[in-house]
Amino acid sequence: MKQLSKTFFLITAITALSISFSSFKPGTKNSTATSYTITLVGIERVGVNDVWTWTLTNTNPGNGSNGTLQDVSHWSLPLCPAAETALVSAQYSYDGITWISSSINIDRDPSIRLCTKEDVLKFDVGTSGTTPTYYRATFNKVFTVDPFAYSYIKTGGGLQGCNVYTYAGVGCYEIIGGPRND
To answer: I want to staple 152 with a disulfide (CB 3.0 to 4.6 A). Which of 21, 24, 76, 98 is the partner?
Structure first.
């Protein structure tokens, strides 16, 4: 049974890692021509914690006109209550090597109030050009991968620069005695 659980988790993780998502704005058509790309780089077991790492990349930087995308101002993730209480730390990096601690306050972000009124984990750092920015969150519990989690990307000034993006994120289901609990 434990082997079946490990196999299921591995298949789920590989599937989630291979899924590519595009942006969508409520009430508009999905566009894959230009979009930000959010990739789950991996989930690593470090001691008793799971470290989730993502990259966020602007695939067509510019001023936001003629199909270009403004640089990201910040990235906000809603988390289910179980993941909120299991969150140990949050960090970001511009190179995937040197990590900088980020606030782990889960609260409403007034700058994305047109997108959501829910509490979010806000990574208050964005992108510059096509260089990916790395984000990671550390949890003291094991969670499933949700291949259709959603997040909020804030760009530019004003409230109009808020977009909803799906990505492979932290699921709301804790894996009790899960495959990464060795």
So the answer is: 76
The Cβ-side half-sphere exposure at 82, using a 13 Å CA radius, reads 11
40: three-class secondary structure by DSSP: strand
Helices (H), 59-119: 81-86
Please, which residues bridge with residue 162 across strands? Answer: 154
Strands (E), 100-142: 100-102, 106-107, 120-123, 133-139
Query: Exposed, middle or buried by CB within 10 Å (0-12, 13-18, 19+), for 142?
Result: buried
- Find the helix or strand (DSSP H, E) in which 15 lies: helix 2-18
Q: Quote helix, strand, coil % in the chain, to nearest 5.
A: 15, 45, 40
- Domains in the chain, CATH or no CATH each: 2-174 (2.60.40)
Compute the C-alpha angle 66/68/69, nearest 5°. Answer: 140
Q: What is the pLDDT of residues 16-74, one digit of tens each?
A: 443 333 333 332 223 344 689 999 999 999 999 999 999 999 999 998 888 888 999 99
| DSSP, res 98 | S
What is the length of the chain? Answer: 182
